[in-house]
């Protein structure tokens, strides 16, 4: 008797302990792509995943994508990209699953309640860096495929995998690979699925069809050849931090309005359909405020909040490299500081124009300080916003799968974060990309105490299994 999708679901349910243990192994690898000293860990994570796919009978290619040049001019090898395939039945459709194996930095001292790289199960939540962004979802795909195999149910579609180790650092090198393999590895792919985004709330599942882009800036100011005692030298040096903080303060006002001249001129006006979408989704401003622990928000209605998160640019100041930030009262004048901020871009903003506007404005602001210090501004990462065709059968398959597992209609939403590869697929292929969101809004991606709900982990694997079956039914036959 052939196995059913219910048998796959039952296998998933019966192997919860094994799947949690595996996630713990993955989270324990400190695959932080932004810290060069941990590049070996990113490589180890990629190799572990490749071996896991091979154990599932997959064919794996580890593609060398070269090196990156660090701020000091040195070269560092980029982690290879995994291009793999499980199932090559020419009679079946093919989906390509994308995910990333690198994570954002984390340390206990940031305010975690447990070691960020030790998966900790508390009250039905699996706490650890990468649990939701994006190791949990990537591992879910492999567990899902294993569950089909375990009950001897053939995969309904062929599955290709594109897994990288640099997403949290701007997916360096991936775009070129997709361009190069657009007609080969990606040539027989029918659609793409990415699970690297989050629900608007904690209960209603979501499909995401739009993301903001990201323009990341670094402003370097140097006032001396070494750090200086602020008592001995203070008052006689044009301090780099003084210059930098005045520049940063000139970028955005307390209402969140970006002060760079012309930055809003290319923003696409809100359409009636977009306004309606904001009005229809299941989202509570009060739940959102309480969940993030803010006393008040910049906006107060559901529509206004979502419009600002999805359809309008925002500017965030992230930190200052070289500034003193430890506990205690170090009395130093930092000789060289690098301020870091980013602008989330929305449709029709172009990264090149944003770069020009920001650089002109910051240079003008710096010149008005009449400072003799050395100054430089760069934009290491720049990407546009991304919006998919949510009427594509790929979205129908996602919707049907979510409805089957959760018993409710998923919300169709946009998100304010960025996933660079979505643009690479749009630029170099004609493939539809579905963001099959598995994480809850309070998962804390990039934040302290990042977590993945055990229920989202387990139900997510069932959604994936059901999505693969739905794809085989809804994708048009040739
Ligand atoms: N889960 C998606 C995500 O977190 N994407 C990052 C992408 C990034 C980070 N630095 C450069 N790109 C995001 O911050 O949106
Ligand atoms: Zn991610
Ligand atoms: Zn992330």
From TrEMBL:
Site (Important for catalytic activity): 229
Enzyme's top EC category: hydrolase
EC annotation from Swiss-Prot or TrEMBL: 3.4.13.18
Keyword Protease part of the UniProt annotation: yes
Active site: 102, 167
InterPro entries: ArgE/DapE_CS, CNDP/DUG1, Cyt/Met_Dipeptidase, Peptidase_M20, Peptidase_M20_dimer
Keyword Hydrolase annotated: yes
Co-factor(s): Mn(2+)
Domain (Peptidase M20 dimerisation) ranges: 210-366
PANTHER family associated with the record: BETA-ALA-HIS DIPEPTIDASE (PTHR43270), CARNOSINE DIPEPTIDASE 2, ISOFORM A (PTHR43270:SF4)
Record-stated family: Belongs to the peptidase M20A family.
The protein's name in its UniProt record: Cytosolic nonspecific dipeptidase
Organism: Lethenteron reissneri (Far Eastern brook lamprey)
Upper lineage: Eukaryota, Metazoa, Chordata, Craniata, Vertebrata
Encoding gene, per UniProt annotation: CNDP2
